Input
Amino acid sequence: MSAGGKEAAKNKPTFVDMDPPDHMKQRGMVEPFFTKQSVDSLRPHIQATVDRLLDIMLKKGGKSPMDLIENFALPVPSYVRLHAMSGEALLMTRSYMEYSVCLSKI
Output
């Protein structure tokens, strides 16, 4: 983890960094998303996402080096999480992402 990431984790830890009982409370909120049934229901979307990202990478032709992390490893879980979210949580995430993109252009 980068120095900036470590500093951010100190200020707002994720449930992975938490101790019980906070860890178990947070873990309990996401645990339903990791059942076999839940993951199996996402399989078609995961496969379509992977296929789409690989197609994009292939279209670039491999004429120059490509960052596999940036172009594949980071987008796959992000897209899957967004697909798995619904309703207000998705709208809030989309608004945050649009806001972040706007800020990155400044």
